[in-house]
Design goal:
By secondary structure, this protein is an alpha/beta fold. It has 2 domains: 160 residues, VC0802-like (2-Layer Sandwich); 171 residues, Rossmann fold (3-Layer(aba) Sandwich), CATH 3.40.50. The protein contains 11 helices and 16 strands. Strands 1, 2, 3, 4, 5, 6, 7, 8 and 9 form a 9-stranded mixed beta sheet that branches. The chain has a 7-stranded mixed beta sheet with strand order 12-11-10-13-14-16-15, sandwiched between helices.
């Protein structure tokens, strides 16, 4: 039995499960029901299958809604007293085939909950135990195997991380601002938008570094994608990233304010708008968010075709955003879910344009 763990943003577990089922069915893999949030752990999806580890891991490595693939090895409950000693003792007794074949290894830890120890404490104890058990060398940079020893409240999970780099690093990042949309989140937004038509026109009016456009260009190669941003640096940087990915010709960009969509684009010119506007947290703190959302919604209604989709993340002023949806009557809410990204919890909305307000 192979047990894999796939990591994603909390709130996107069901999107990962759906993508896994699609890929597994297409690949003819034995049936395996994904388990979202195993042991109540946010941001994880467990896969148990009779198939060998190697082909399953290769299939998971093609996914676009996850960051890492791990092979689950062992789990145990942390005692209230001397938990670090328990971690050391468990690892001294654990057989990990990847450690037997490796020359150098490293330990990484994700920790969540109220603990009297730090992640560094876990790594130190676990590393010492595996050095004693296998006689291998710890090397944080030039390692052959990465062992995860994670502590979630009173549960400790031991896994082998099979992905060396996060799977979301799949696009050129010549321009990489400090605050940018995660590629995994961008892909999930596009999937949840339900854009089933073979071709169409998509707009991202807050394109930032171009992450959504890069994902859309790969996910929907027959669609024409348009991007804009009020910040000239973002427009120039996004153009650099799109050119490096070879999709700039399919994704024309311009500098403009997302509050002025109806002034710059033709009525009913797009089948979809997918965007990540300022949340008023790290970016846009001086913006009147309620006024911004009002203008964005009315402009989006003008430039979308009837039945077109508006998918966006809303950070602060969510209650006000919901009131605007009711007051304006321009869109139906087709989907809404809270997610976590960069320690912030925005709401992901998928809205459908009504024929008449």
């Amino acid at each position: 039995m192979t047990a894999l763990c796939l990591t994603t943003n909390p709130g996107l577990e069901s999107v990962v499960a759906a993508e896994w089922r699609e890929r597994a069915q297409a690949a003819g893999c034995p049936p395996a029901t994904p388990e979202c949030r195993p042991l109540g752990i946010d941001g994880q999806v467990a896969i148990a299958s009779e198939a060998p580890t190697r082909p399953l891991a290769a299939l998971a490595g093609q996914m676009r809604t996850i960051y890492h693939v791990m092979r689950h090895c062992h789990q145990f409950e942390l005692p209230a007293t001397e938990p670090l000693a328990a971690i050391r003792q468990q690892l001294l007794q654990l057989t990990i085939p990847e450690m037997q074949a490796a020359e150098r290894f490293r330990i990484t830890t994700q920790r969540s909950g109220d603990h009297a120890f730090s992640s560094m404490d876990v790594q130190r104890e676990a590393g010492a135990a595996l050095v004693e058990r296998y006689g291998k060398t710890v090397d944080l940079e030039h390692y052959d195997t990465e062992i995860r020893v994670d502590a979630f409240d009173r549960v400790c999970l031991v896994s082998v991380q099979l992905t060396r780099s996060p799977l979301d690093r799949r696009h050129p990042q010549l321009y990489a601002p400090r605050v940018a949309l995660k590629t995994v989140v961008a892909h999930a937004m596009l999937r949840l938008s339900g854009l089933a038509a073979p071709q169409g026109r998509l707009l991202d009016p807050c394109c930032g570094s171009g992450t959504l456009l890069l994902e859309a260009a790969q996910l929907m190669p027959a669609w024409r994608c348009y991007g804009s941003d009020r910040d000239a640096r973002c427009v120039a940087g996004a153009r650099q990233n799109l050119e490096a990915a070879g999709v700039a010709e399919r994704c024309p960009l311009q500098q403009l304010d997302a509050r002025d969509l109806a002034r710059h684009f033709p009525p009913q010119g797009f089948e979809a708008i997918v965007t990540n506007p300022p949340w008023g947290i790290r970016l846009g703190r001086k913006i009147d968010l309620v006024g911004f959302y009002r203008k964005l919604l009315t402009g989006a209604w003008t430039v979308l075709v009837p039945g077109g989709r508006l998918t966006l993340l809303v950070g602060r002023k969510r209650a006000a955003f919901n009131r605007l949806l009711d007051q304006l009557g321009l869109f139906e809410v087709r989907h809404a879910r809270a997610i976590e990204t960069n320690d912030v919890h925005p709401m992901l909305f998928v809205l459908e344009r009504r024929d008449r307000p």
